[in-house]
Amino acid sequence: xxxxxxxxxxxxxxxxxxxxxxxxxxxxxxxxxxxxxxxxxxxxxxxxxxxxxxxxxxxxxxxxxxxxxxxxxxxxxxxxxxxxxxxxxxxxxxxxxxxxxxxxxxxxxxxxxxxxxxxxxxxxxxxxxxxxxxxxxxxxxxxxxxxxxxxxxxxxxxxxxxxxxxxxxxxxxxxxxxxxxxxxxxxxxxxxxxxxxxxxxxxxxxxxxxxxxxxxxxxxxxxxxxxxxxxxxxxxxxxxxxxxxxxxxxxxxxxxxxxxxxxxxxxxxxxxxxxxxxxxxxxxxxxxxxxxxxxxxxxxxxxxxxxxxxxxxxxxxxxxxxxxxxxxxxxxxxxxxxxxxxxxxxxxxxxxxxxx
Amino acid sequence: xxxxxxxxxxxxxxxxxxxxxxxxxxxxxxxxxxxxx
Lengths: 356, 37
What we know:
heterodimer; A: 356 residues; eleven-stranded mixed beta sheet; six-stranded antiparallel β-barrel; 17 strands; B: 37 residues; elongated
């Protein structure tokens, strides 16, 4: 298994819903320790500082490490769990999916229960079930049985899904590519920077709680006070049935994306263009993306202090915010090439020119 | 990528201790959706 596959497998199979990222943070530590000076902010984001040939400018590379999931809200007398969503779930991807309740006594497997079609009248079969009406079934028949398994309100619940290499060998299927792919890129970029000089200090950050409102980015950007930032994210691939070209023209395997718009940030235009120009110089394929119904850690980072020139680079994935997303290895490798090349260009003069 | 597309100004983040004060029996306020006032 090559190093990138191993890294993506390890990161995506780790359990880390917003506010409960410790298992992912442990994986990040394993890879980041030795690549720079590693620290942590007070809500759990992990920061790795790698000095280059100059102390400044400070370049922040941020990839959030949380994944969407749930939290146990209530245990019914009959032994079912009601839950709170942690992040933006689409109700229709939930029914029948396996989950893991992380309890103080260990992992408890369950399933999001679904009424069988046999019992549904014709009109009800056409109606989507809402999250608030769903429950998690761990196979118990009473509250006492659930409590004996160690389940308590407040326990985090994570999707259960394995990392799988698909038939063509180039596409990978897993939960949590949003955004372990960004966390993995933070590691890969820092690994590459061990081998080459760069005219800045790079702060690789795996932020927490992005999916519930970019909270880790809000605190970690204060700890770093960067001069420039690149957010590393899973983007949305539009090459599936039902998505029109004007909604997303992004395709798997056609290059990393450079986001020109999202609901909470317009990138620094000069930084955005620096990425496009660098991609052209190095013959790296890139794609333009825009997301009207979502946002990234850039929302908090670009508004830090008096403002931080920020851009988002993405690796597109199909079916994000579900148990099973798919991305293309070439997009990861090309994102890495582009990021390393751009970081090498971010010297003091270049970064200053971004805001002149 | 968060599916939260609300501008920051529309999101009210209150300390949990204050939420406990105004809703005494509530134990968990983990998402912003529940903090919107």
